[in-house]
Design a protein that fits this description.
Layout (H helix, E strand, L loop, with lengths): L14 H9 L25 H14 L8 H5 L5 E8 L2 E7 L9
Antiparallel strand pairs: 1-2
């Protein structure tokens, strides 16, 4: 695994500075995408690949501060992304990649 030695903005830097630094970094690649499906909390949906991709796409927007899809987030070192891998019955397998705001302990 390569060590990330890039310089990132600091939390106290302006939004503009964060976005400027983040704009120089590539966003995480989205392997499979769909139109976002936004539903009220507690809604029931069909469990199929199309629905999972749509809800995942909506999550990328709604909880976007967790991921590196915006230049501002990438500017402070959040470069993480999430992708659909497969479904195994009622189990949905996702792949996390990149850097997130919290360290993962193995």
């Amino acid at each position: 695994m390569a060590i990330d030695t890039r310089d990132y903005a600091k939390e106290e830097d302006s939004q503009e500075m964060k976005a400027q630094i983040g704009a120089s970094l590539e966003p995480p690649e989205i392997e499979l995408d769909a139109d976002p499906i936004f539903v009220p909390a507690g809604s029931q949906l069909e469990l199929d690949e199309e629905t999972v991709l749509g809800v995942l796409s909506a999550c990328r927007e709604e909880i976007g501060t967790l991921f590196g899809y915006s230049a501002e987030n990438r500017g402070v070192g959040i470069t993480g992304g999430v992708d659909f891998v497969e479904m195994d019955g009622p189990t949905v397998v996702l792949r996390l990649k990149g850097r997130f705001w919290q360290e993962r302990l193995y």
